Amino acid sequence: MSKAQQRLSQVQSHLASSETDISRGRERILQKLPDDIVVTCALRTPITRGGKGGFKDTAAADLLTHAFKSLLSRSSIDPNLVEDIAVGNVLAPGAGATEYRAAALVAGFPETAAVRTLNRQCSSGLQACADIANAIRCGMIDIGVGAGVESMSSQYGPGAVTEFSELLDSHQEAKNCKVPMGVLSEQMASDRNITRAVQDAYAARSHQRAEAAQKAGRFDGEIAPMKVKWVDPKTDEEKEIVVDKDDGIRSGMTAEGLAKIKSAFKEGGSIHAGNASQVSDGAAAVLLMKRSTAERLGQKIVGKFVCSSVVGVKPLLMGIGPWKAIPVALQKAGIGKDDVDLWEINEAFASQCVWCVKELGLDEENVNPNGGAIAFGHPLGCTGARQVSTLFNELGRRGKNIGVTSMCVGTGMGMAAVWVKE
After folding, report:
1. pLDDT-based confidence at 22, cuts 50/70/90?
2. Phi, psi for 192 (deg, rounded to 5)
3. What's phi and psi for 242, nearest 5 deg?
4. E strands within 16-169?
5. ∠ CA 355-361-363, rounded to 5°
């Protein structure tokens, strides 16, 4: 056998081994083992328009309190068994550490349940879930809650970003971290030839899918309706209302309608309010423990957390984060993209979502089938936890198993996680 033939044989052997490993990886993550990190409850509040919607007058801590109370009620878990709670938040000073500890106490968790907050920007809610899952996996705790919350109505704006020092400003790549995401996304769309027409078509589809899902009641199972006080902007009258659905979804949205909206970041640009994620308010919570613990306590298992990944990319290419993070998560899980039944990829901007889906070679029919953040909003710290309930509900509706959640992250990062529906 010639050297060329030997090399070809080796390559074919490696490919065969890789395909076999991936097949075994799928079989492995579908197995039910005592040490699996499982989810026994995942829910969210409705997501409402920042400054205009049903939660515009509701504090972030109150939204989180409601998510916690609903989690305890739906799961029937004894709150005394919960050892740690991680909350993702982006805009509150100190990531809301003090008020979110207080929220847990108001919700019914005892003082023995520790609480911490974290900020990894748009992936904060997912990072909270991953941190709790990993704390359980390594034996630090037995039961925990991963959550996320954001009130962009009250805390979104220039004040959320600290001024850079002269030292940071003197380093070009570091300085790029403070370029507004809309500006850098506009540049990315231009550099990678993602036309406005393509972005508007994607955004219109997100709205159309979300509208259809809402009308069909597909979000009802994941939403915990909330009674709040709301001030009518026309009369200044304070009313008590029940918020039970996402109020940012626009009915009858079309690409033609979106084409009439003025660009937001550049004269004649491609990005505008209709093809980017909405400024929103909302909270979500996820209850995690080992399978053996869930079975001992009689907790109904919704699904399991397999693994997660986090990666860095150039700050000016923040939007490509999912493209880099997803393959890493799949590799850690030992599966390939064809093993994944459903994808929840955050729609920060249509431009970056379109590019990531295309470059990853994903089937668009299985990406955000019920719409995404362009349609119903992106409460920054909440989204990563919100995606868990949305993913599991749709996997269950379809009778499928494996799903991935992912998002780009401000300043140039990406995060992804692999989940399995029971």
Report:
1. low
2. -105, 15
3. -105, 120
4. 37-44, 48-49, 84-88, 114-118, 143-151
5. 100
Provide the token pair at 228.
């709040």
**Six-digit token string for 345:** 């990829």
**Helix/strand/coil for 401:** coil
Q: Among positive and negative, which fits the CA dihedral 42, 114, 141, 292?
A: negative
Is 138 one of the annotated active-site residues of the chain? Answer: no
- Please tell me which residue in 41, 122, 353, 356 is annotated as part of the active site: 122
Catalytic position from the list 129, 353, 378, 382: 378
pTM for this one? 0.93
Per residue in 254-300, pLDDT (tens digit) is: 999 999 999 999 888 999 999 999 999 999 999 999 999 999 999 99
Catalytic site residue from 41, 307, 353, 408: 408
Helical H segments across 112-179, by residue range: 124-137, 152-155, 166-169, 172-175
Which amino acid makes up residue 181?
A: M
Answer yes or no: 307 catalytic.
Answer: no
Q: Is 122 labeled as catalytic in the residue annotation?
A: yes
